[in-house]
Amino acid sequence: TGAPAVVLAVAGLRRSFSGLTAVDGIDFEVRAGEVVSVIGPNGSGKTTTLNLVSGVIRADSGRVSLGGTRIDRSTVEEIAAAGLARTFQNGRVFGGLTVAENVEVGLYPTRRAARPLRRLARLPVLRWLALVAEVAVALVPTRAVRAEQAEVAARVTAQLARFHERLAPRRDNQAHTLSYANRRRTEIARALASGPRLLLLDEPTAGMNQTETAEVLDQLLALKAAGQTMLLVEHKLDLVMALSDRVLVMDNGRIIAAGPPHQVRNDPAVIEAYLGR
Ligand code: ADP
């Protein structure tokens, strides 16, 4: 038995932007099945931390490991294939694609037919060639491809069922016609499609009203109950307290407190960082 496996390990992570240190040497772990929230005042380094972990930006120093494998020098595609999925602060979906197609995009890191071609695509010059080859492969109706297409359709349906009243009826609608809350749900469904080891959520309820926030909280609690490991940045403390196993409090690029929600809430350093200025 013992403690659950470490899914994400971050050590000595640091990143500056032209002289300003956004993330100033942080260390933390996320274990299997845990929900860890990052809170802190604006500008404290929360989003930069998510961007460093997911490979959107590079660290100046420090290391990030996912399931024991270093990912801090890997590409976004490699990190996704290693089992990390994320959502963005403002909800990025492909407006011209349908809801189902958006979710299908999320399956890409795990699609078998695409794998060898993606390795080829590491060379930038060959990227377009790989794309052409992938389309060609998709057009050849081999048995393997047909089987994979059926599997993709089943996985998309399963993801949409998670958000049944909201997304399933809108399966074939273009994403740009959706409400803001439904675009954000679509983004979460897309991130979950690949069955990620770790789900990163950047303010999953930003811009949502109370009803929508409560509904997303219910969905995230259901995900947690299903064992999904999550790391999120969130401003709404009620949601953080209800959802998190542990909370990391950032201020000025550092983690100034970490622990279970009730403990962190009463920490004098946390109260000072939030209220003392
Ligand atoms: P938070 O998410 O906690 O609000 P951020 O991680 O977005 O904080 O930002 C931390 C600090 O780094 C802020 O001072 C911000 O202005 C700065 N910063 C973040 N990204 C960049 C960037 N791309 N270029 C310059 N400064 C940045």
Automatic annotation (TrEMBL):
<dbReference type="GO" id="GO:1903805">
    <property type="term" value="P:L-valine import across plasma membrane"/>
</dbReference>
<dbReference type="InterPro" id="IPR032823">
    <property type="entry name" value="BCA_ABC_TP_C"/>
</dbReference>
<dbReference type="InterPro" id="IPR051120">
    <property type="entry name" value="ABC_AA/LPS_Transport"/>
</dbReference>
<dbReference type="Pfam" id="PF00005">
    <property type="entry name" value="ABC_tran"/>
</dbReference>
<dbReference type="GO" id="GO:0016887">
    <property type="term" value="F:ATP hydrolysis activity"/>
</dbReference>
<dbReference type="GO" id="GO:0015188">
    <property type="term" value="F:L-isoleucine transmembrane transporter activity"/>
</dbReference>
<dbReference type="InterPro" id="IPR027417">
    <property type="entry name" value="P-loop_NTPase"/>
</dbReference>
<keyword id="KW-0813">Transport</keyword>
<dbReference type="GO" id="GO:0015808">
    <property type="term" value="P:L-alanine transport"/>
</dbReference>
<dbReference type="GO" id="GO:0015192">
    <property type="term" value="F:L-phenylalanine transmembrane transporter activity"/>
</dbReference>
<keyword id="KW-0067">ATP-binding</keyword>
<protein>
    <submittedName>
        <fullName>Branched-chain amino acid transport system ATP-binding protein</fullName>
    </submittedName>
</protein>
<dbReference type="InterPro" id="IPR003593">
    <property type="entry name" value="AAA+_ATPase"/>
</dbReference>
<dbReference type="GO" id="GO:0005524">
    <property type="term" value="F:ATP binding"/>
</dbReference>
<dbReference type="InterPro" id="IPR003439">
    <property type="entry name" value="ABC_transporter-like_ATP-bd"/>
</dbReference>
<dbReference type="Pfam" id="PF12399">
    <property type="entry name" value="BCA_ABC_TP_C"/>
</dbReference>
<dbReference type="GO" id="GO:0005886">
    <property type="term" value="C:plasma membrane"/>
</dbReference>
<feature type="domain" description="ABC transporter">
    <location>
        <begin position="8"/>
        <end position="277"/>
    </location>
</feature>
<dbReference type="GO" id="GO:0005304">
    <property type="term" value="F:L-valine transmembrane transporter activity"/>
</dbReference>
<dbReference type="GO" id="GO:1903806">
    <property type="term" value="P:L-isoleucine import across plasma membrane"/>
</dbReference>
<dbReference type="GO" id="GO:0042941">
    <property type="term" value="P:D-alanine transmembrane transport"/>
</dbReference>
<keyword id="KW-0547">Nucleotide-binding</keyword>
